[in-house]
What we know:
Structural class: alpha/beta
Oligomer: single chain
Largest sheet: 6 strands, mixed
Helix content: 25-40%
Distance between the termini: 62 Å
Number of helices: 18
Bound molecules: alpha-D-glucopyranose
Amino acid sequence: MSIKTIITSAFAVTAAVCNAQVYLDTKAPMEDRVKDALSRMTTHEKIKMLHAQSKFTSAGVPRLGIRQLNMDDGPHGVREELEWNTWSPARWTNDSIVAFPSLTCLAATWNRNLSATYGNAISEEFAFRGKDILLGPGCNIQRTPLNGRAFEYVGEDPYLAGEILVPYIKAAQANGVACCLKHFVLNDQEIDRFAANVNVSDRALHEIYLAPFKKAVEQAHVWTIMGSYNMYHNVHCCHNDLLINGILKGEWKWDGALVSDWGGTTNTWEAANGGLDIEMGTYTDGKLKESEFGYNDYYLADPFEKLINEGKIPMSVLDDKAARVLRTIFRTAMNPQKVIGSQCSEAHYQACREIAQEGIVLLKNDKAILPLKADLYKKILVVGDNATRSLTLGGGSSELKTLRDISPLEALRQLYGDKIDFAQGYDAGRALYDQVDKVDPARQEQLKEEALAKAKDADLILFIGGLNKNHKQDCENGDRESYDLSYGQNELIAQLAKIQKNTIVVTFGGNPYAMPWISQVSALAHCWYLGSESGSALCDILSGKVSPSGKLPVTFAARYEDYPYVKYGAKAYPGENKQVHYLEDVFVGYRHFTTSKVKPLYPFGYGLSYTSFAYGKPSVSVNGNKITISVDITNTGKAAGKEVAQVYVQAPKSSIARPVRELKAFAKTKTLNPGEHETLTMTLDKDELRYYDETIKGWALTQGSYTFHVGASSEDLRGKATAEVN
Length: 726
Ligand code: GLC
């Protein structure tokens, strides 16, 4: 027998004798590690893992060397460090980070590769800050353009939402940082967010609202999910047995840990039996001082332990929760593959800038006024509060403390020097969170007059406005109160355009808005929120260094009343007596506008380039479960650019009221130079064509002839192909 064998077997014997710590063996199968750890833990140790021990951490098992879980916001970058047990900043001097573009901006890129770039870069910053769980991304559906948190989400279409988030989640988790997909589910408005009960058909629940979560579970194996504050079937979603145990952990067989939203847990019995695994932020709604309750008072702490010890709840319920938490710890905090990461690296700034460049959507460009031919102009007047305002502060839990935050005005001055003049034009207040904007009318008038006076000497006006991160703009815990832009922007834009027809409007914001002035301005670009490189990316587009290639992930209706839920009144939004009814059912966004033939101002999927593209005749082939669509895209213009080909599928006629067509595939070309072409090949699984049949409480496929429309937007169809699907 070789020496090696003798030694190995000696080890094996020793290990067996001293009860080998399999849970510490990072090469052992995950489930063996989990089982072994569980077998060594006391009931109290299992309980302590199920709730917060500070504002953003939950306990491990120090006795066994099992690490705690460090969590942090948010979807666009690592939040500044807060004190251990309060919402106050810890005033660190080394926690300034890269603010990445908002997720709606990422959605607007329609670029899966950039989504992976995003997930990799942001998780490196989370790892560097010692975080195990990134509290994001978000995929609640943009059913109303007033939702205060839409900027954190990925648009109105569940297919685009899922496709854009899967690469982000995969890349982040490959670095050993768990994503925490949120908010599960139906948290599609901020009004009454803690208590609104959402009434929605099973079909719309599955086809629209659960769909992105399902894709993230099945294709990205997202490791944690955050329950939402609101209710479904009058039960809070953070511990909703039907949604969590029935669908998420049951039907979808999800093995991750369900984390509550902060303060989203409301009672022990439901939390124990409704599928909650980690209770965070209870009472942190400010009703009680931290000293009035300890972490042992949490619903899943002493009260739950008591029920276990009295045998009122079986140990198996506790073991399942603890197993899910252990699995998350072994996947992150105790994962030797977890990266060290980096912070504020040039690679991260480059990623930020690329995503921002490709997320900017050019909506109007009369007489090709863009890209800017700067030497045509002597004086370019920049007007608007968003030309200088930091849009990474505010907005709620996703706010960020940055090292670099290049404003549009700064970048424009770097590029065009003293050709650039500036007038603020209006005051947008500083009402972060729940203060209300107190802007002085006299000051508004004065700022407007100054801008109009300067406009007379300018031969080009660049208006930079839109929404911001104030309360009741794009901000958590409140919705917008109007579809209009605030602070008198509409009047100011109209008056500026009257003085100078060369007026270009650039807006920031997470939501669509009304544009009464659109026919009077020459060009319009919408930027969502661009993060640390805002100004640089905007100038890359305005100067023509990069052709715009963003496409709308949400419909811009001409009038607020055109959104599908509005005709049903308050009960459809924002609800009555905290009951919200999604009466538009599956006809959300373009599903409504295309099916009901209501013309939007700018349709879902729309976005201009500095060049033009021709679409060849699409072809489609069905091979078993796989459907392949291909189309040739040629750059027929004079500038280089990228195009996004979108496939909208029209199902055969049936008794089911289905949207006339639905997005089921898309692909973005590489940069095509004038004359160049690329054949895009898109595949989709036949399952994507099913609808949810409430009579069988499951998915069903209509057999027959399907039409695959290929287009440059949901309204601009360039070709089609049909195929029998059975
Ligand atoms: C907030 C948000 C959630 C965030 C959490 C921690 O209320 O709803 O998205 O991650 O609390 O800040």
